[in-house]
Each structure stands twice: as structure tokens, then as C-alpha cells.
Amino acid sequence: MLETEELSKSFKGITAVEGVNIYMEKGESIGLLGPNGAGKSTTISMISSLLRPDSGDVRLYGKSVIQEPNAIRRVLGMVPQEIALYQELTAYENLKFFGRIYGLRGKQLEAKIQEVLELVGLTDRQKQLVRTYSGGMQRRVNMAAAMLHNPEILIMDEPTVGIDPQSRSHILEMVRELNQKQGLAVLYTSHYMEEVERLCDRLYIMDHGRVIAAGTKEELKSILSGEEAILIDLERPNGGLFNELEANQAIIQTIETEKGLKLIVPKGSKMLAEIFQAAERNDAQILRVNVQVPTLEDVFLHLTGRKLRD
Ligand SMILES: Nc1ncnc2c1ncn2[C@@H]1O[C@H](COP(=O)(O)OP(=O)(O)OP(=O)(O)O)[C@@H](O)[C@H]1O
């Protein structure tokens, strides 16, 4: 249905996106995952025809979006990262305004406004000024606005950044239902691994403007199928232990965590005795040790050498 061909974009000599190929089938839920500055927003701006690529193209049902931008605007609902609403109008008035831009009028517009308000759970609050809403509620109005023209594809740019946990959970649930029950195709960008794991069928991992890995969650995790993670909770951080483990050739990666350390080791390697000996040598108090199968977070770390969020 939708695909990009070698999309590239630079800003004043800085490469934001380079050679990105992404495709999306009808009704699919795709995640675009990467740290800040990876090029996610730039990519979706080009997909939605808001930004012209330096080279490459976007195709909707085989036709170039650059040549026919209106075709994608008709089928696409876009929820931008920034809240794009009139603060001094009510949610209802905002939706009326956006509905008119989409060419909706009269009873049809009225019915659609009520339908999308219901969808985002704001029917009861529709007559209140948007500025009195929480960030999460404003984001929900943004989503409602993106749904007014019955889009086939919903693109969401980090929709849960900076909002309260209740609204976050509400948004995730809503997106899942729209995708699974109504067959809406979703392109979801995030730097929260758990969100894309919950929502998306397939993932593209971006870093420094490029797609560095793509596939289903299972496919991506199989990159690390030969590895496992050992989580070590320490009474307090211990630099000596970290340095010793980091220097150990048998350990693939040593990462500091909130509670202590995480080691990526070859599957089945019998490292525990060695870890306890190292702890003793460094006077480190181990509270708990857990062995874990790799997560998508580990896959990201493996591919980039960095954590998703610092
Ligand atoms: N309009 C612009 N002018 C100059 N540089 C830009 C512009 N838009 C993006 N960039 C740069 O391009 C790179 C990619 O940015 P982009 O916003 O696409 O990343 P992102 O993955 O969406 O990150 P974030 O989560 O922070 O939005 C960054 O280095 C950014 O500073």
C-alpha cells in the first residue's frame, strides 16, 4: 500500500535521513523506533508530503506522493509531536474547524465529530476550552482531529511523550483497537520499546538517519538468539566491578543499570561463579542475580552500542 524508496534528506549539510526504505501493507501496524535525532520525524514528514525529500520517493498504491501529494493527504491521518490545537476554543470547536478543512459540513460533520470524540473518550468534556485540558487530553483531541476524514493510515509521532500514565495507556489502547478492530494501518514512532512491542506487527529501527534493522519482533530478537542477559542488582554502584567485568573477554557487553549491572553473555556460558568472585574481589554486595532472554532493548543496544534513552 505504502512504501518509501531510498528516501534521503539533509538540513544545511547535516544528513537527517539517508536511503530509507520502509513499506506498509493495508491494516498493518508498523513501528519506527530510534533515539532522539534518529530521523523518525523527518521520515514521516516526507511520507506525509509535508517535507520534500532531497532524493527518493514515497509511493501510495504505486503512485508517487511527490507528484500527487493530495492522494496521500486524503488517506492519511497525522498526529504530530507538537499539540496543534486552538487553546481558546473548545474541543468541539477545534474539531469543527478541522472538519471543515477536510470539506465536511452540516449533519455529516456533526456526526463525525461526535464519533471521534467518543473514540477518544472526551464526549463529556467537549464543551470545555482546550487550554483547561491536561497534555494527555489535548493529545487525544489531536488524535480525534486526525480521524475526522476516515483515514486508512494513521501516523503518530511519539504521541505519548510527556503525558500522564492514564492518558498514555488510553492512547495505546485506542490505537490498538483502531488497528485490530477497524483495520486502520498505523505507523507509530517512539523511543519507548515497550510501546512498539505492544502495538506493532513489524519494526524499523533507525539510528543516525538510517534503518539499521527491520523485521517482526521475533525476527529482531533472533539477532541475539545466541545471547542472554544477566541482571545483577547491587547494594551500591561499584566502579571496580564494572571495570573488571567490562575487561572480561567472555562478556560481550557490560551495561550500568539503575539497580546495578546488565551483562550480555553467550547463551549457556557459565559465568555466575566468575561474577561472584569478581564481586568479592571488588568488595561489591550482590543483592540479586537474574538471567533473562534478550529484549528488543538489548537488540537496539547490540546494534548501536547505545541505549535508546540516556
Ligand atoms: N528543520 C530542520 N532543520 C535543521 N535540522 C533538522 C531539521 N529537522 C530535523 N533536523 C535534524 O535532523 C536530524 C533528525 O531529526 P528528526 O527530528 O527527524 O529525528 P527524530 O528521530 O524524529 O528525533 P526526535 O525524537 O527528537 O524528534 C536531527 O539531527 C535534527 O537535528
From TrEMBL:
Region forming the signal peptide: none
Entry-linked PROSITE patterns: ABC_TRANSPORTER_1 (PS00211), ABC_TRANSPORTER_2 (PS50893)
GO biological process: daunorubicin transport; doxorubicin transport
Domain of life: Bacteria
Topology within the bilayer: Peripheral membrane protein
Subcellular locations according to the entry: Cell membrane
Alphabetized UniProt keyword annotations: ATP-binding, Nucleotide-binding, Transport
GO cellular component terms, semicolon-separated: plasma membrane
NCBIfam families found in the cross-reference section: drrA (TIGR01188)
Family assignment from sequence similarity: Belongs to the ABC transporter superfamily. Drug exporter-1 (DrugE1) (TC 3.A.1.105) family.
Protein name: ABC transporter ATP-binding protein
Natural source organism: Halalkalibacter oceani
